[in-house]
Amino acid sequence: MPKENKLIERLADIGEKEILNRLQKYMDIGQIDDDTALIRNYSAKDLIINTDLLVEDVHFNEQTLSPKETGWKSVAVNLSDLACSGVEEILGITVGLVVPSSTPWSWVEDAYSGINNALETFGGKLLGGDCSHGKQRMLSITAIGTKGPLDLHRSNARPGDHLVTSGNHGLSRLGLGFLLSDPLIRNIKINESLKKNAIQAHKKPTPPLKALSQLLRCKPYKIPLRAAATDSSDGLLEAINCICKSSNCSAIIDIKNLPMHSQWPKGDAWINWCLEGGEDFELVVSLPPKWAKEWVNLIPQSKVIGKIEEGPPNAFWSTGKKINSSNLGTFKHF
Predict the structure, then answer these.
(1) What mean pLDDT comes out for the span 175-185?
(2) What's the CA gap between 272 and 198, in Å, rounded?
(3) 11-147 CATH fold
(4) pTM for this predicted structure
């Protein structure tokens, strides 16, 4: 028997009003009745706001992320930025949706399902947004949260600090390599559990909100509430250099202590993926040594990778050689 043709609803046939009507189920009643969204901030704390984009054929495609995974990841990458700025409570997000009018409604519904799943997991509400026709799919998320007691500005690093990461690096890049059949991994034997973890790291990242909470909880008594941090969304090396430039100091990195998975392959290319792969969404923090020790004891995957010293605002190996970008697998926005 011939297969039954299933009617595919496309956005061009549905129209903007019906799209918005269908998306209301992910929001509070009346949330999008107006062109603005009211945020009741009863605590009257300072707010932290961040906007990040996921663009088709730049950050995702049909080979790498399903619509639900795209929705989840669009939220996770924004909440990671809030975490590295010391967020206390996630208030919510707005969504800017751009898609070709030929896009099936099912793609949008699945993307918003992924967005909703992430918010249910990490906190916050869908506050509203906008949608428009465009040549390629794009999700623009603006995330809003309250600022906590810890100021994690990148300029807070001081000579004598330890440089600590909250987890392993390079996993997301390895996961992407598997999804795109990267030549580097074709003739390398990779443990099956490492492969699974890597693909999960790329498809469904977790913002480091728990690591931030533990950082606050383990601060030793009498140590000042001062730390510098960023996340490693653009790569570990880029994160370290950003802290160095903002704090006008040097980072001295021990190559033996790079935050690599225990089953990570050996070789320069794999070191480069650890340093520059990007999209790991781990915290990279400059802390007083006693505080760093307490934090590492709380988080099994965390590691002290080096120290902060006076000097030129760059990352250096412990041998004194400057760590230069290899441009191997490094993500560039332009």
Answers:
(1) 92
(2) 16
(3) 60s Ribosomal Protein L30; Chain: A; (3.30.1330)
(4) 0.89
